[in-house]
Amino acid sequence: MHETVNVNLPGRAYDVLIGTGLLAEAGTHIAPLLKRSRVVIISDENVAALHLDSLQDGLRANGIDSAAMTLPAGEATKSWPHLMACTDWLLDQKVERGDIVVALGGGVIGDLVGFAAAILRRGVRFVQVPTSLLAQVDSSVGGKTGINARHGKNLIGAFHQPSLVLADVGVLGTLRPRDFLAGYGEVVKYGLLGDAAFFDWLEGQGPKLAAGDVPARIEAVRRSVQMKADIVSRDETEQGERALLNLGHTFCHALEAATGYSDRLFHGEGVAVGCALAFALSARLGLCSQEDPSRVRAHLRDMGMKTDLADIDGELPGPQALLELMGQDKKVVQGQLRFVLARGIGDAFVTGDVPTQAILDVLRDG
Ligand SMILES: NC(=O)c1ccc[n+]([C@@H]2O[C@H](COP(=O)([O-])OP(=O)(O)OC[C@H]3O[C@@H](n4cnc5c(N)ncnc54)[C@H](O)[C@@H]3O)[C@@H](O)[C@H]2O)c1
């Protein structure tokens, strides 16, 4: 049983299937894309140990052979050395222009393997099989691929849309609770940026969803993916509206840099803290009511998530140093920082017009 969301890009439209049992059915869904009955799969060691066999069995059931490569888990894998290892292995496997590369894993694997597919032989097709909540609701959809640089996150990459996304919510059951909740940070982001009714729904259903309720998980992933698909269809390369999806990310990227992309702060946790800070900044600037940031923080707290800078383990640089780290963000335009702020829950907008002192104040109080 699955739901389907279509990403409607001219000439590159694709489906995102969301449901259970999709790994077992992978062969049925991937076969129509193939020119020969063989795929290559790249995964990370955690995911491969848990789910690679099911995927390969699902492919074999449709007569599809597969070879697999396993990389270390973690953000550090989104780097030049691992990109090179991927492309070398894909060439060793004699992957041709018409073949399909499968990315089985969280956002790290999806971003890295998508980028490898984008540059291999000037572009081969790939299928995303996202296994973390974050990857199912966000990173597997929309075609942003890439790796991190010494200068910051995701600074080297390409837009390369997948040919299909198989989001099997059954695999979310093996996520560590902390990884699940990190992904929930991106789910909340959708409600906050453009769908107040979804945020209301999450306030009611969030705890059930975290406890493992499958229909609630399917619904949360479907609504998130639908919103992302709609935005990406209208603005694939982020000339305008797509930037709304970066709610919380300018703060998040600075915090990730400050914590060395380490276990101190997962990306989705940084997004949640970043959303709380973006609402605090919006209220400070008189754009939304004071109740809005309180409501955002209350929901994140109810879910057992990090909401404040003080929730991040260890020392953080001061406000001025964090501000400088924000200056490395891709969203800097002509030297000016771009922020996603909100007029209320579900009503975000992008602006470059934010007084530096207000940002520093929020960072000092956050
Ligand atoms: N391309 C985009 O549009 C986009 C959007 C948002 C985030 N991202 C990127 O996504 C990355 C974060 O993604 P993530 O949170 O999925 O991180 P991740 O890929 O590191 O996965 C988190 C952890 O969960 C493990 N894991 C994944 N699925 C599992 C499962 N089913 N069972 C058990 N363990 C599992 C992984 O091995 C890893 O240890 C960041 O690099 C971020 O920049 C990209």
From TrEMBL:
Indicate where this protein is primarily found: cytoplasm
| Record's protein name | 3-dehydroquinate synthase
User: Main EC class of this protein?
Assistant: lyase
**What gene codes for this chain?**
aroB
Q: How is the cofactor bound?
A: Binds 1 divalent metal cation per subunit. Can use either Co(2+) or Zn(2+).
Where on the tree of life does the source sit, at the highest rank?
Bacteria
| Reaction(s) catalysed by this chain's protein | 7-phospho-2-dehydro-3-deoxy-D-arabino-heptonate = 3-dehydroquinate + phosphate
Cofactors per UniProt? Answer: Co(2+); Zn(2+); NAD(+)
Organism, as annotated: Pseudosulfitobacter koreensis
CDD domains membership: DHQS
